[in-house]
Amino acid sequence: DQQVKQNSPSLSVQEGRISILNCDYTNSMFDYFLWYKKYPAEGPTFLISISSIKDKNEDGRFTVFLNKSAKHLSLHIVPSQPGDSAVYFCAAKHSGTYKYIFGTGTRLKVLA
Amino acid sequence: ETGVTQTPRHLVMGMTNKKSLKCEQHLGHNAMYWYKQSAKKPLELMFVYNFKEQTENNSVPSRFSPECPNSSHLFLHLHTLQPEDSALYLCASRGESATNEKLFFGSGTQLSVL
For A39-97, what is each residue's pLDDT tens digit? Predict the structure, then answer.
């Protein structure tokens, strides 16, 4: 049972435009959500996170939106840069635990 | 550099070998994790340790044996693995603060089982 889903395995965006990566979850007991970026043969690096009590968090070019009623979160990258090309994972944490569940990832390619 | 160091970076082993993966964190964190990443699959949580005590075992086969001697070190002992166990094994850690709940990952060990 995949509790965190990233339904788009890949996305291509022109440099300077907006990249929107989506993530859906099924468990209403998740209370914290995170986005990670991963290059091949490296560990994931943290990008941005959001608590379930908020609906938006912004950090520079990165904004995460959370829609709890739809159990959906998205990551917006504006403007997209070629260096943003990587695999992006969303993750969710179970309330009251240290347990984090990850999605399958979306490969973003930013075209110069 | 995330403050989480994994060794070795690459490992090739036969199905009858015994090997160990090592993870060390220099962040003063209390929780440590093992994740497995296979091709086209999500990062799969394997084990969670909090203050050296195992709090999660995600139905991992017994051929994977974790060890957490202290909050800074985590090992994954491997024996009689199968070729389908070939994957990137990632270690992560997090602190106790409720205001900073992000995981910090190491670079991983790329394991090939022949």
Answer: 987 899 999 999 999 999 999 999 999 999 999 999 999 999 999 999 999 999 999 88
A77 touches A57 (CB < 8 A): no
Residue of B nearest to A97 (CA): B55
Q: Look up residue A97 and give its DSSP letter.
A: S
Contact B105/A101, CB-based, under 8 Å?
Answer: no
User: Does residue A4 belong to the interface with chain B, where contact is any CB pair within 8 Å?
Assistant: yes
Distance CA A104, CA B55 (A): 24
**B29 close to A (CB below 8 A):** no
Q: How far apart are CA B17 and CA B78, in angstroms?
A: 8
* Cβ under 8 Å to A: B residues 30-69: 31, 33, 35, 40-43, 45, 48, 50, 55-56
Backbone angles phi, psi at A7, to 5 degrees: -80, -15
From the list B4, B41, B94, the residue facing A98 with the nearest CB is B94
DSSP 8-state class, residue A29:
T
